[in-house]
Design goal:
alpha+beta; 27% strand; 4 helices; globular
Amino acid sequence: MATVELRFSALPEHVRTARLVAAAVARRAGVDEAVLDEVRLAVGEACSRAVGLHQSSGISAPVKVALIEEEKQFSIEVGDEAPHAVPRGDTPGAAQDAEADIEEDEMGLAVISGLVDDVEVTTGQDGGLIRMTWPTTPPAAALL
């Protein structure tokens, strides 16, 4: 079981690097070549979501990405430290801003769900985690 961990500043320019690393590790783990574009897109969406949550919440902690190679499957976990409770405020427009943020968040999760068959999303006061899993095939040499 091999795991690669990435941590990057919550800046949009780092999302591309996370996508490239995820695709390279997925390829090495045995994820089907035809699925690698979906891996890249899903990781990009999950990382962009985490970056946006960190920026909108004023969180300086890094976004965390774990690339986990297990027997017969490859998983990617993208974690953020943004509180996911619905904000309640008396400030005029706060409810509208919160509603827009929730709609954007739901759209991002819908895109990820459309790209990945096996997705788990957990959220709470201390942050959230998106776990995406793909099946792997053993290298041809291992089949002999």
